[in-house]
Amino acid sequence: MTNALLIAKRTAKINQIETMLSEYFQNVSRVSDLTGTGQLPLDHHFDLIVVTDSLEIKPDGEFIFCLRRLFPDAKFLYLGHEITPETEMSLRAAGLIFLGPDDHFIQCGHQILKSAVDAAKKNISH
Fold it and tell me: pTM of the prediction?
């Protein structure tokens, strides 16, 4: 796996997550504003996309489905703090490999990322 996209505002926790991602991916891109046009780097291939609820626009399952259409080969994680049962159901239906708070991801992110990278390697070798 070589490219990851992090959709998040710059905070100390997000910086930790970005550092963790850089241990597994050659390139980590960040989008911190979805309000303007052309913010997503559509000309890139991403192996992993991490979406957070730190932006003014709170991404939901529909947003993940849109990203999945744009980046069909990517794996998706969602880091959020205020997830209603309806939002959780929508997000889980989008096929995430992780859904939870950033604190939990910081604690167990290495296991999650190693698992995602190993699964991708198996898919490439078959």
Answer: 0.87
